[in-house]
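User: I'm writing a tutorial on reading structure tokens. Could you give me a worked example: one chain, its sequence, then its tokens, then a sentence or two explaining what the tokens reveal?
Assistant: Sure. Here is the example chain.
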Amino acid sequence: MSSCCISGFSWNGTPSGREDKAQQINYYTAGNNQDVAILLLHDIFGWTFNNNRLLADHFAQEVNATVFLPDFFDGEVVPEEALFNPEKEIKIDFMAWKKRNDKHIRGPSIHAFAEMLKKEMGFKKVGAIGYCYGGWAAFQLGAKGKNLVDAISVVHPSFLTKEEIDDVAVPVQILAPETDPQLTPELKEHANKVIPSLGVDYDYQYFPGLQHGFACRADMNSKVEKQGLERAKNAASSWFAQMLNLR
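And here are its predicted structure tokens:
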């Protein structure tokens, strides 16, 4: 985990969705489409982060889907103050945090929640979008033989491996900033070489001048970052509208 994962800004705005609970997991949800769902896999700031909830609201409205933003950190919350208070950042033990939230620990609950959307809640189409930490999870949900989601979008993903890229079997969108110590040039090159050979729809979009975290923690006072955020949001909305057969 690098400092880029807690850099950025929190946004103004009041989320319009609601909170609920399933499988002992708290979640935020927006929208009321009974056929189409989007699972939003959050960054390090988790399910209570205002920016993540506002993004869920946008996707619910723009894609006409029911969006689920679950708590996959078992109640642990990294305070938003870490974005603009250096003392808060210093107090975060990233190695301990990463160990508590290792893929092998959080993966099972993420997979189970995704499975529930179709098997128990009855959604016909399910998409998954992963920001930062949630990026690797989106790829795992879309892996061969899983049949959990119908399309994925990943936005400046963290902890992603070449093996997870190689194993994807559903339509993939990658929204990649120019500067990203997590989605390295090597990983970008690998994705752009391998995914087109897998027989799935693929949309790779590059965001020059932007860095890791821009699509969920952009500085709204920066024209470049705000435009990048809006482009990323619109790209993801359009992607799911097409891949989940909504338009």
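What the tokens reveal: The beta strands are 18-22, 25-30, 36-41, 66-70, 125-131, 151-155, 172-179, 202-211. Residues 1-10 have pLDDT under 50 and may be disordered.
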